[in-house]
Amino acid sequence: MSNGYQPVSIATEQLLARLVSAGEISEVVYRDEAGQVQQVHDVLRDLFVRAGESFVLLGRGQLVRLDHLFSVNGQVVTGAGAA
Tens digits of per-residue pLDDT, 47-65? Predict the structure, then answer.
């Protein structure tokens, strides 16, 4: 598993920002720090950047690096180079 951060697309960031604003429960599929795929249903609380890496904060306090996301509400997360 690479530790180099890979930015996500602007469309993905916009989707996440809308979900943070909505405050509704979302389905989030991501790879955790141990490399395991996790699927959770939780509220997205905040988006922020720390040390050049973007994160989403889930309602339970879990921080997920955006480039570790696979999908949110069934929408596949794409990299910055994707349309």
Answer: 999 999 999 999 999 999 9
